[in-house]
Amino acid sequence: MELLQLEGLQAAEYEHPFDAKTLNALQQTKGLDSLVKKLYDWGFEAWLKQQFLGSSLKLSSSNFPDVYDVFETACEILNFKERPQIYVMRELYFEVVTCGVDHTIIVVGTEALEKYSEAELLFTFGREIGHIQARHVLYSEIGQMMPVLMDALSAATFGLGGLLSAGMQMAIVEWLQCSQYTADRAGLLACQDITAACTALIKAAGLPGKYDPQIVLDDFKTQAIEFQGLQKSILMKFSKYLTQNKGWEIARANQLFSWTESGEYKNVLERKTRIQVAPTAALNFCPGCGAKIVQAGMFCTNCGRKMG
């Protein structure tokens, strides 16, 4: 199948409404700007990158040409002009992580490279491109750090007292899940194969290697369609644990099927949703520290100051 290149594609065309709603709630949460500034004062993003880069192999067109070609294809299909550095890491299994607001890196697990088909890798790389296009990276980094932050709070260290409130924890947990729905839509637009998207989710959900994902595909679809989600009370009670290596594969498949059945996915492919954007200055400067910022950004990524 010849894949369509989605000229002029923007994240707003495939953003999941739950993502937009929960992101707005998160951004309005009291104390978020203080938390962001505190984390950047600590250099948490640099620390997070070091955790990945200290034991990862850099992926390029020369040492992993077949994989890099898949990544290039995903970028071209999704109208993504940037080329983040990609690393391969054993410990991640099927997980893929994107971090770095300014200098973004993508870290993919060895299991994904070994066991995903080319179409499944397209879905996977498309998801990470979607996270970047939708400006998820800053808040997803906070989500990755949240278990550490909650441990720090319980130990009453680092001067965090009161910053990570119950309301903020809830807002982060809810948004983290909903941001995956947007990323999955980008992944599907990249691979343009709902079956490949499903088999990637099946493998990530824990299918043993000796089984063919096609065998359980129909049951997986039925389970996903019947999934009703989790109550907020349950999310809040286990918020610390819900941020640790939980893929939400069934919930995500549920939302992906809903999107394709609604006709919205087809409309994006056919470019019926194309948005005309008035030209604006791409960069501005933080009045607090003078760093360049993206105009649409909520916070300065250098000092954490909330923008007007």
Summarize the structure.
The protein has 308 residues and is of the alpha+beta class.
User: For the largest beta sheet, what order do the strands appear in spatially?
Assistant: 1-2-4-3
**Which overall shape is indicated by the principal axes computed on the Cα atoms?**
globular
Helix residue percentage = 40-55%
What does the main sheet amount to?
Answer: 4 strands, mixed
Beta strand count:
6
Low-confidence stretches: 278-283
Report on this model:
The protein has 308 residues and is α+β, with helices and mostly antiparallel strands. It contains 15 helices and six strands. The protein has two domains: 11-277, no CATH class; 281-308. It has helices at residues 11-14, 17-27, 32-42, 44-53, 65-77, 110-115, 118-133, 137-154, 166-191, 194-205, 217-226, 232-237, 239-242, 249-262, 264-269, and strands at residues 57-59, 85-89, 96-99, 105-109, 283-285, 292-294.
Give the topology, please:
Layout: H1 11-14, H2 17-27, H3 32-42, H4 44-53, E1 57-59, H5 65-77, E2 85-89, E3 96-99, E4 105-109, H6 110-115, H7 118-133, H8 137-154, H9 166-191, H10 194-205, H11 217-226, H12 232-237, H13 239-242, H14 249-262, H15 264-269, E5 283-285, E6 292-294
Parallel strand pairs: 2-4
Antiparallel strand pairs: 1-2, 3-4, 5-6
Helix pairs in contact: 2-9, 5-7, 7-9, 7-10, 8-9, 9-14, 10-14, 11-14
